[in-house]
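Researcher: Here's the sequence for the chain we discussed earlier.
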Amino acid sequence: MPAAIYFAPDAFVLDGKQIMGRRVAGASFLRAAVEGRVGEPLLAYTDRGYFGEFQAAVGALDAEAPTRTIALGDHAELARCGTLFRSDPVIGPEARLRLRSGPARFSLCGVTHTLMTSHSIEAIAALASEPVMPWDALICTSTVARDVVRSIFDDAADYIGWRSGVGKPVSLPYLPLIPLGLHSKDLAPTQGARHRARTRFAIGENERVVLFAGRLAIASKAHPFQMYQALQAVAGQTGKPVTLMLAGQFFNDRIAEEFANAARRHCPDVRYIVADGADAQCYADAFAAADIFLSLADSYQETFGLTPLEGMAMGLPVVVSDWNGYRDTVRDGVDGFRIACMAPAEGAGAEIARDYELTSNYDLYAWRTATTVSIDMKMLIDRLTLLVEDKDLRRRMGEAGRARAVGDYDWSVIYPRYKELWAELAAMRMRSINDDRVRDWLGRAPRAHPVHRDPFGRFATFPTGSMTGETLVRAAPGASVEAYDALVSMPMFGFHRLRPDLIRGLLSAPSGDAVEISAIAREIARPTATVVEWVSRLVKMNLLIVE
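Model: Thanks. This is the structure I predict for it:
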């Protein structure tokens, strides 16, 4: 059975939202899940208010695809499907909640995106002290992403060991390496598409179009300065008309103007075109019109990098910085070129880290780090020059990249790896709970996280006495369903209304002599603990009286 997907529209629906890597990846994953299902319905674990949005999102991909929704907190249903998948690394709160039904009831599976923000790092570091299990997983989309996650775990474990004096945590999640996928059939290059796209942008036959696609920002993707200067040098050395195409979205007009002004200043002999990434056809045409894909990512926010794969799927040779997940996807000298880069060694960033902790100014943090990462300019200019001048080299690398994108990174290849992982987690869970030592350890697990302990236990010394299943209660004079309805119609009691049949049972059971609350619970077939809460509220409302 496939995993239940923790569904929030912001993570999977693109309509009307800023185009961001995590949203694009989420929408792409949902499509892969729809296309990769084998008869079974798509499962969503979500707030009831989102049931309709999930059905609409799936229906837009396949009107015939069946869906089923699981309400938040329904661990019995999650146990039946076996795995809960989140499209982020925030599995800690789910692990806490799972304690209420048992840490071995089902597996949790998250995935990394950016690993630079405080929010992301804190969520991952927290896993060192959260009740995650070895049968849970945090998918790392690249080798460097897994390196970073391991580093965070090590630091968190050392910190916990120092604070507690008992050594490192007992269990951490499994860290499988599964890259992001793409739908390569949407990106197949054709001569017709190329002709239409170059006509759209008024690109001449002899122009060499170098494409950068993705987030158009100074410091949260790829700082443009060295790209501009390299293209200016290539245009001068080759004498070829070079065009730079930027495809994506600027966060605001000021940044757009800054990019344009810098291009006029640093690459005046390079034609500058911007393709609106919010327009799907315009974005696709930018890839179809290009000759070379270029991405000099230098932001630590970037952990995988999907756009070079899109370029490869379109049959473009790619030139990328030897950075992050690009090192996994782009084979140097085969699909294109990886350009060496340098960054400061550990120790040089202590002041940057301190200032970020003090101010929480993420934009400044990203800028101060990205502007210290340098690209080998000679290598970059030499490699771009080779590609600008050699059509056959562009073709060979483009064909190799296309074959790699289709064969290794298409969702038809990647999504089955998710399903294999979920099956593996289930097998790990079953092996573990059949081990006597592990079963004993699980049996001693708390039934809730300490932050969310039963309030009546945490604050037990506040009242004079405690209401229990043995407490005797009787109906107050005039107690009735109508009296209850009159009270719950008022704001002071209206936040939690019980069904009339339950109220009738709660009030009729002790209508004569006083009875124990546990007897009322048996009469209405509800757990005693739950009935203690309900009866306590009816006592508050003067509908029941404690003997």
